[in-house]
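Hey L., structure's done. Input below.
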Amino acid sequence: MGSLMVVCVENVPPRLRGRLALWLVEVRSGVYVGNYSIRVRNMVWETVLEGLENGNAVMVWGEPNEAGYDFVTAGMNRRIPREMDGVKFISFLPECESDHAGS
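Output:
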């Protein structure tokens, strides 16, 4: 039985985006959706990890837990997954001073 999954990518090479478009529907730029088995979901995530280069990605899928979903992330991003009492949430890293240079 399949499960809905969503993959979001930023700053990844065009070849990875093309690969993802083979299996998933790109509903917005960098946002891919599909309904696949765990085995296919794992294969898609391995493809993301292999092609990520300097980009970042998150994959979310339905899961029978309290939240109703689970997720994994890869690459550098201010949003960092944290876990507390078995529940995942997102924490933000502070902005770098260099992010405001030239403002």
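The longest helix spans residues 38-51. The chain has a mean pLDDT of 87.

-- N.
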